[in-house]
Structures are given as C-alpha cells and as structure tokens.
Amino acid sequence: MTRCAVPDFLLPDLGEGLTEALIVNWLVDVGDTITVDQPVVEVETAKASVEVPSPFAGVISTLHGQPGQSLAVGTPLISVSDAKKSEEDSGNVLIGYGTSATKRRNRRARVSVAPVTARAPKPGVISPLVRQLAKERGLDLTRIDGSGPHGIVRRVDVERATAKPVAAKTGERRIPLKGIRKTVADKLTQSRREIPEATVWVDVDATRLMEARAALKPVSLLALIARFAVLGLRKFPELNSRVDGDEIVVLDDVHLGFAAQTDRGLVVPVVRDAQALATPELSEAIAERTNAARQGSLTPAELTGGTFTINNYGVFGVDGSAAIINHPEAAILGIGRIIDRPWVVGGQLGVRKVCELTLAFDHRVCDGGTAGGFLRFVADCVEEPLKAL
Q: Which one, of 19, 366, 28, lies nearest residue 195 by Cα?
C-alpha cells in the first residue's frame, strides 16, 4: 500500500460505451474506514446493476451524490482522506480500478462462508445509511426481504417497505424513465422507427414436445425451442443478421437473446455462441442468465451483442403477440402458452397440447418465404422433437 495524492475516487469507465450511472444505494457512509477493493456504491447503468469497488483505502470524507441521482463517468464518486492505494495491478471487473484477481477471489470466498439471509440481515453488512433510514422510519430490518446479494437489505428495500401511497387528489403517479427502463424504451422506439417489420404465425401441436421435455429433464421447454431456433437459423441464415447502411450483414455465430422480466423491467440476457452448445448446455446457460437477471447481477457484456431473440410470452398466460424486434437484430421468435385444444390427428378429432408460434422479422433482410420457411421448420421440430434432436 502506498499513499495516494488523489483523494477523489472518480466514477470509472464501466465499459460498453456507457457514459453515466444512476446511484441506487450507498454501501458506506461518511466517516467509514474502507479497504482497497471494498464495494462502496451500487449503481445502475443502461445495461446492468453493478457494485463499484474502491481503489483506495482510508476514511470516507464525502459521498458525491444521492440515491436516484445520475453521475457522469469521470466525475467524483467519493472523497477519501488519508488515502492509500494498492501497489498491485488491477484485475477487477471495472476498467482501470480494483485489485488483483487473487485478492478478488479471496474476498468472494470470505463472503460465501457466511451468507446473509433476508430474514436476519447482519448489521455489520448492511450499509449504515440503510440502518439509519430504517431507524428513522421505525422499520425492523429483520422483517423485510433484502434484494441485494445474499439477501442484503438495500435502501430501495427500506423505501419500498415504507412507501406512502400517492394522495388520491393528485390523480396521477409519475415513474421516471431512467437506467435500464430508459434503455429498453429507447431501443423499442428505435426499432419501431427504423425497422419495417412483418409478422407470421402458426399453431403447432406441442404434445410430443411436452413428452420430450418430461423425458429430458432438467432441459427446459425454452431451451428445446431455442435449440430448434438455432437449427432453423442454419437453414435460414438471413434471419441471423442486421442491416448496416445499404448492406445486410449475415452473421455466422448465433448469440441468442431471450426476454426476461425482472423487478427492474424487461431485460434480454444473451447466450453467446449458442450454435456451439449442446441442448443441456444451452438449457443450463439460459437458467444461469435468468437467475442472474432476476438478481440484477448481469454484466453489460451479458446484455449486449445478441443476434436473434426468443420471447416466451406464454408465461404470462397469453396465446400470441406481435413482438417488437430487438434492434438491431432482424427477427424475434415468440412462444405462446401451451394449452389443450381440439386438434385433428390422422383424420380423428382429439385433444392435443397446442401452442402458437410467431415470428416478427425485418422485411429488408428477407421476404415472407424465408420467414415462413423458418417458422415452419421450428414448428415441425416442435411436433417431432426427438427426430429434430
């Protein structure tokens, strides 16, 4: 450790071209003594929610900003008196800051030894600011569920638990579009503005798909349909593309995105090189990304770079939807709920498990024949899954 002449820790480059971050929750308070690589604040960028580690050790003299405030990259985040900085090279997840990979692994190992539960948060782990806020509002921290890592109670949890309803006389409630929600809104608007999309759909007998799912546990239904979509993109590669100026760029690798609903809004985690994964591996990757999305721990890299997206809106109890393409991709496959319906099999009317599949596609990259061919291929795989696999 060496003394550092710079007492201010500036908001670091968070990667992916991000220029600002929203303060979600301070993990420390003025007067706290911190160590190198200690997380000091949770911020939400346009891509993900991350904890920012300090490159300095010392005593915090100033916190620059309040929860809910946006800070630009390169502006002061905290001021540290009697600051000391690590002599080792950075290895942390934020560009230009952090300690070695060895120290980072050790720190994470120590945390995992004694995980914090949501029902019995440890006062030494919870931010002093959060403890003070809970005290002011008369809230027992042991009685609320924490949304932070290992169930740690954050400021947003206290505010949510003690929020007062909006007075009826106002007649309205305003929700700021910021962070991930604003990014999603901007992308959807850009998609509608720039992409001339069309939609095709088909009803499909998913009875054998349900049987295959039961036989292939723990492979998920979403993973099976994702596998069929990847196979379909080999036959119809125009749908795994994007428009760049006056050119259509057809991509060899399938970076598969899938829509996931979280407390922070809709996000699209990406499984890279899905074409190289076996079905069980694809299922495991989707499950891991889904859990990380709900915990708010996805990195910016895991939320960008998709080439084709799947949206399982059937989990919301609906049959069909004209989904909006995830710009700048060329298509999105939608999956409706699987329900019992009358269906003719071999000339006889019976009851089968039926699902509606939809495909919204960029009409600049292909015509209806290509889009219909892809959707029919996926539908045939759903009806004969073992043959397809």
A: 366
Write the burial class of residue 373 (CB in 10 Å: 0-12 exposed, 13-18 middle, 19+ buried).
Answer: middle
CA distances, 10 to each of 20, 55, 56, 284 (Å): 12, 10, 11, 37
Burial 317-327 (b: 16+ CB within 10 A, else e): eebbbebbbbb
* pLDDT over threshold 70, residue 124: no
- Per-residue pLDDT for 115 more than 70? no
Burial class (CB in 10 A: 0-12, 13-18, 19+), 234: exposed
Give the residue numbers marked as catalytic.
363, 367
Q: For the chain, which residues make up each domain, given as ranges?
A: 2-161, 180-388
CATH class assigned to 180-388: alpha beta
pLDDT in tens, 19-78: 788 888 899 999 999 999 899 998 887 667 788 999 888 999 999 999 888 888 888 999
Q: How many CA atoms lie within 13 A of 36 on its CB side?
A: 23
Domain 2-161 shares a fold with domain 180-388: no
Measured CA to CA, the distance from residue 283 to residue 276 in angstroms comes to 13
CATH assignment of 2-161, among 3.10.350.10, 3.30.420.40, 2.60.120.10, 2.40.50.100: 2.40.50.100
For residue 125, which of 109, 144, 102, 146 has the smallest C-alpha distance?
Answer: 146
